[in-house]
Amino acid sequence: MTVTDHPRYDTRLDRYVDSYAQRTNGMRVSAVRALFAVANRPEIVSLAGGMPNIKDLPLGDIADSMAEMIRTRGTQVMQYGSGQGEPELREQILDVMALEGIVAHPDDLVITAGSQQGLDLVTRIFCDPGDVVLAESPSYVGALGTFLSYQVEVVHVPSDDQGLDPVALVETIARVKAAGKRIKFLYTIPNYNNPSGVTQSARRRLDIVAACRAAGVLVVEDNPYGLLALDAEPIPAMRSAADDVIYLGSFSKTFAPGFRVGWVLAPHAVREKLVLAQESATLCPPVFSQFAISNYLANHDWKGQVVVFRDMYRGRRDAMLSALEEEMPPGTSWTRPAGGFFVWVTLPEGLDSQAMLPRGVDARVAFVPGSAFYADGQGARNVRLSFCFPPAERIEVGVQRFAEVVRRELDMMDIFGVHSPAPIEPHRPAGPGPDLS
Amino acid sequence: MTVTDHPRYDTRLDRYVDSYAQRTNGMRVSAVRALFAVANRPEIVSLAGGMPNIKDLPLGDIADSMAEMIRTRGTQVMQYGSGQGEPELREQILDVMALEGIVAHPDDLVITAGSQQGLDLVTRIFCDPGDVVLAESPSYVGALGTFLSYQVEVVHVPSDDQGLDPVALVETIARVKAAGKRIKFLYTIPNYNNPSGVTQSARRRLDIVAACRAAGVLVVEDNPYGLLALDAEPIPAMRSAADDVIYLGSFSKTFAPGFRVGWVLAPHAVREKLVLAQESATLCPPVFSQFAISNYLANHDWKGQVVVFRDMYRGRRDAMLSALEEEMPPGTSWTRPAGGFFVWVTLPEGLDSQAMLPRGVDARVAFVPGSAFYADGQGARNVRLSFCFPPAERIEVGVQRFAEVVRRELDMMDIFGVHSPAPIEPHRPAGPGPDLS
Fold first, then answer.
1. In chain A, what are the domains?
2. Residue B346 pairs with which residues in a beta bridge?
3. How confident is residue A137, by pLDDT bands cut at 50, 70 and 90?
4. Which of A310, A399, B102, B183 fits a 20 to 30 Å CA distance from B110?
5. In chain B, which among 356-375 make CB contacts under 8 A with chain A?
């Protein structure tokens, strides 16, 4: 049968509305999401997505070595596997983490279906409804969506151009505790933060770990971009200085995201709970994917490939920063990321980035409004621009269009006074979808 | 660095014991699990596992077509994908489900990381702590583990050799409702049930759907073994007669489990919630795996391969049933499955299968005690034997050893009176691990 000849049965009305779990109240399609469907048209320059550019991977070589793997180990790589993840990949991940100063034991690693699942499982084992998770200002939209789906209250900690502020962290912890709430962990992306592009200084990392330890708050360090340092060498991971940090890693940006392989490194007792949660969630993480990555690490120059990726992303970042310098009207500021995928723009006072998005799409440029990266309504003047996917020439065109939209907004504000936001429903972080990852 | 030269840091004591979410109380390592580590020794015949036997797959052909896929579509198949799953695979799944009489729309399918994740996401969107899920007696251990991890109360519905009893179902629903509890859904495996091997008759399927509909209880139909009919053609799926049944499908038994690809077919409103839950859990299901399966369905004789699998499993089932007939002492009974992987044995009165397991391992045969498949302590006299993985000769040896263990237990009972169970902690279903899948 085909799609078209099937009589569409009437299940559009939600008969189940009274049956859903309370946690589904935290799972809402954002108003922003609908616009992204439109934003996928080819004439639009998307500075919205977080997709890595993987076209430089040696596909022919990968094809050959994967075929060899299937021929020689097919019945193993296509079979059920360990709930914790394959031992040989866990050994190899130790070498990857060693590049950021982490010394660990393969027993304390759990492989996950991307680091998003790592975050889901960590939240699952620690958070009851009403618990508090602390996060940077701003923080990763996909993490906020996961926390909300577990009915967790997210409290943002003030952050600046060196990342999360340790003094503000201590104050925030005290305030939340005084309100009688239980803080389960701090969620942080210390390297090239998504969305801000900011990197925590080495000093701050130590101060943050010390402050959390003193308060009995776990630290969850999410580090998908760590090896994509575009200027200096990476700063050692928080986990390299503190065995009790829960560390989330990923192959999505250093190899390819389609395999959905990430990992959690956790203290031993926590790791046991994570494995039980993983088995209950999926029996075992994707086995074929794990062997595919293991095979890639063993048989290809993966470190050389990371250098290729760095050079490519450096060119794109520089193109974006130059274009912003040339194009943006006065009163606009932005971060200068030393790695990763994202630049965080602060618009002149009075502008509303979410209200601007439809006008951006109309001008053939897409971006993510800053409010997506807050659980509490902040971010109206902010925009995340990503330089990872479009080539440099397209980035320049995109920034020109974006700047033109901002200039027009400023003109409108001059004429009509303070900008009034378009009638669009307030954004709530939700499952981000690949477009926002 | 290597494992051995790493100083083992002291994180064995669980400092986090007060930090975990309440739901982790439902996630416990079962006493049975520890024995399975021992049971993996090669001299032991394992009749415990649920691993499909995939050695007959055409590995060379699969290797070639996967390599071609990577060469020609590598940047697509290794990239992030849709949170709902790839459209071309969803179209192909319609053809798979059509073999069991299901007519559906690809919009109403969500791809999952194995059908275990389908079950996890369905439970996530429907179940608050304290809600009730109804299940067969006995029911799949991995499902029970997932329900417990969501703090769901499982109520078993009496079942017989035609599957779940519709009259008992109506009575159970009334009793649970009268106790003031909310029933969210009935979880059922109508074809070749895991663990009982029993198949629901066509008549009963209709009665069960009607009873649930009348009571406002959703039906979740889990059908991993449906195409592995070993005698007659499969009975049409429950979903084929009722659009409001939530259907879980899997490629783990008809192709290979290592890709971790299953699916949920759900009414449209439910499907939307499932996609949001999927994005929050993993961003998107494994993309490479989806394309690998899509490629297999398109370029290989997958239906012919299912016939090969059927013939192979039929031989193993027949070997197991013959051996049971020859070997088992009087007072033992067992099911005669028309498909799937499992035979369900009922031991003579007075025996305890969990207490027998260490003696089984000692006699070099492993099995799963029946209590694993109940949330309420039933099943002491039952054992699940699987015929899927070992070849026929090994199955015969395994059944001989199993029968010998039973005979010795009976002798002991004759000598010492009623059997007293060994001091082993009561089993609770937990994440099953691949050994129990």
1. 22-55+304-415 (3.90.1150.10), 80-299 (3.40.640.10)
2. B333, B382
3. very high
4. B183
5. none
